[in-house]
Design a protein that fits this description.
The complex is a heterodimer of chains A (453) and B (138). By secondary structure, chain A is α+β, with helices and mostly antiparallel strands. In chain A, the strands form 4 sheets. In chain A, strands 7, 8, 9, 11, 15, 16, 18 and 19 form an 8-stranded mixed sheet that branches. In chain A, strands 1-2-3-4-5-13-12 form a 7-stranded mixed sheet, with helices on both faces. Chain A has a two-stranded antiparallel ribbon with strand order 6-10. The longest helix of chain A is centred in the middle third of the chain and has 35 residues. The radius of gyration of chain A is 21 Å and the shape is globular. Chain B has one domain: Archease, Possible Chaperone, Chain: A, domain 1 (3-Layer(bab) Sandwich), CATH 3.55.10. With 138 residues, chain B is of the alpha+beta class. Classes of the chains: A alpha+beta (453), B alpha+beta (138). At the A-B interface, helix 8, helix 10, helix 13 and helix 15 of A face helix 2 and strand 6 of B.
Chain lengths: 453, 138
């Protein structure tokens, strides 16, 4: 495969064979080394073969092997000639992240760190097989699927400004719950307001360094205070929506011979429209899920710091397909392990449990180069089985202790599999995003307390 | 017969083998259940009869494995034993009894998001045995 280096942060695979457009990879030389180790470059080239793709098949600096699309993949499609692909969204529809900024000082927080983390752990269900205590009925679930965070606002679980600081206002219109199967609803109903497990987490972070004073002030981030980061998605409901429609699309349209996982449907076909509607239901479910979790966190903060003030900096999806306007034209953009980065708007890139996370601001080149997108995290480099083989739990725990990070985990297995060593260097990912002017760092945050499923 | 886990950067991949289809399906479910709840020892006190239908054999395996994810999310059940599993190749119907317990009593963490169709193709070996590779999105 021909890979041309364009500059220090961008590579290109020219359009050859069945590729309709070239592929563009944002990476430094160092990141390119690990990118070349699996088949993800082949995946970004395969995405370029899909009908109606516009511009480039793009991948971000944190790219790695995914289902159909690589993780870190971005692709835009013409609304008339283009397609929608569940593999371009991912199984965890609207997996995303939000940051709540507070005026609680690190000093005050550290006096009660253990207790706060413990209380959050008790009030936010996490792990596998841990459902919500207050079961919601099916009618309410349908309302959540239609309204997303708006449902939470109506129930008193959100402030109006929370919705203003959520991508798409926390509610995508045109989501019809009838397009979501009963199986998907049965999986999602016990999971409203739950964190889940695996790579999902809730972090309490120290705002360690403000890089862009003006933007930090605008976003409500002040050095020396704490912020809360919540990372999760649409849980079993979204996973089942993806699975259902992969099977339906395959039945109706077959699959491309170059990759069975790139099953897709024309955007204007009945099944394409139904998937879009069902996906939007899952998107709304996830916005609402993160909102409810944040509400529970706020209650805990209120108990320990009755006078605290807090503000949602932003909530961004990083697994989604959406209709957006770019360069004066409406298109369908897929972001799979990629974050929206519109000029001037907040962007969140979390690190792993022992490394920094960043709030950034969308840069001036993102529209031109990546349909207003940037990376979504550090990106995995080590498999889970290799983690168990090569890393020792005691060493990981020692390292976290040295960095003075408090951890609440559902199991030892989770600590090993999500250890900082299994991820790429977050600083390198941020550097590429910044040099390419897709998104520039505003504030660097380091973990003080971590809760994983 | 057996199953073993193979390298995959982001997800979990395993290869299972069976002397017939019934055994192959049981081995796949063992690999999946090990991924979900690891070496947690279950008190077996819940039995669940399941019936799965599909259009082809690969689809039947996919749907059978997905049933575990469905029962975990919707009814909070985890399993470690499969009884009387029968794959009918003609009608493409699978029946089995799953034995396990309520998940809330145990601590484990691996959230398998989905079974994938990534290279999922049941191979019919010369000596009448079967093998398959399955990738789980975790």
């Amino acid at each position: 495969m021909e890979i041309n280096k364009i500059n220090d942060f961008m590579y290109e695979i020219p359009a050859t064979g069945d590729m309709n457009v070239p592929a563009r990879i944002f990476a430094s030389e160092k990141l390119m080394e690990s990118i070349k180790e699996d088949d993800c470059l082949k995946q970004v080239a395969n995405v370029a073969k899909l009908p109606g793709i516009i511009g480039h098949s793009i991948s971000m600096a944190d790219m790695h092997l995914g289902y159909g699309f690589p993780i870190g993949g971005v692709a835009a499609f013409d609304l008339e000639k283009g397609v929608v692909s569940p593999g371009g969204v991912g199984f965890d529809i609207n997996c995303g992240v939000r940051v709540l900024a507070t005026n609680i000082s690190v000093e005050d927080f550290m006096k009660v760190r253990k207790e706060v983390l413990h209380d959050i752990k008790r009030s936010v269900p996490s792990g596998v097989g841990r459902g919500n205590k207050e079961k919601i009925n099916l009618e309410e679930l349908d309302e959540i699927l239609r309204k997303g965070s708006m449902w939470a606002l109506e129930k008193g679980l959100a402030k109006k400004e929370d919705l203003e600081n959520t991508e798409e206002g926390g509610m995508i219109p045109g989501a019809n719950p009838e397009d979501v199967s009963q199986r998907a609803k049965a999986r999602g109903r016990p999971q409203v307001g739950t964190l889940g497990a695996g790579n999902h987490f809730l972090d309490i972070l120290e705002i360690k360094e403000v890089i862009d004073n003006k933007k930090a002030k605008e976003f409500g981030l002040e050095e020396g205070n704490i912020a809360i980061m919540i990372h999760c998605g649409s849980r079993g409901l979204g996973h089942q929506v993806a699975s259902d429609y992969i099977q339906l699309m395959e039945k109706e349209f077959g699959f491309p011979e170059y990759d069975r996982q790139l099953v897709h449907a024309p955007l204007n076909s009945e099944i394409g429209k139904k998937y879009f509607s069902a996906m939007n239901c899952a998107v709304n479910f996830a916005f609402c899920n993160r909102q409810i979790i944040m509400h529970k966190v706020r209650n805990v903060l209120e108990k320990f710091f009755p006078d605290n003030e807090n503000k949602l900096v932003y909530d961004v999806a990083h697994n989604i397909a959406k209709i957006e306007e770019h360069n004066g034209k409406k298109i369908c953009i897929h972001r799979k392990g990629a974050t929206r980065a519109f000029k001037g708007e907040p962007v969140i890139i979390p690190g792993s449990m022992g490394t920094p996370s960043y709030v950034l601001v969308g840069g001036s080149k993102s529209e031109e180069l990546s349909f207003g997108s940037t990376a979504h995290g550090a990106g995995r480099v080590m498999s889970r089985s290799a983690a168990h083989r090569d890393l020792s739990l005691d060493e990981i725990k020692d390292n976290l202790k040295k960095k003075d990070i408090e951890i609440e985990a559902g199991s030892k297995k989770g600590i090993v599999e999500e250890s900082p060593d299994v991820y790429k260097d977050i600083e390198e990912v941020i550097k590429v995003s910044s040099e390419a002017d897709l998104a520039k760092p505003v504030a660097k945050m380091i973990p003080l307390a971590v809760m994983i499923g | 017969m057996t199953y073993e886990f193979l390298e995959h950067t982001a997800d979990v991949m395993f290869e299972a083998k069976g002397k017939d289809l019934n055994e192959l399906f049981v081995e796949c479910s063992k690999a999946l259940n090990e991924t979900i709840h690891g070496d947690v020892k279950l008190v077996e006190q819940v039995k669940k009869e399941i019936k799965v239908e599909a259009k082809d054999l690969d689809g039947l395996l996919y749907k059978f494995l997905e049933e575990f994810l469905f029962l975990l999310d919707s009814e909070n059940l985890i399993f470690d034993k499969i009884e009387d599993l029968k794959v009918d190749e003609e009608s493409l119907i699978l029946k089995a009894t799953l034995v396990g317990d309520n998940a809330e009593k145990y601590h484990f963490t691996n959230d398998v998001k989905a079974i994938t169709f990534n290279n999922l193709k049941i191979a019919d070996d010369d000596n009448g045995s079967y093998s398959v590779r399955v990738v789980l999105d975790v």
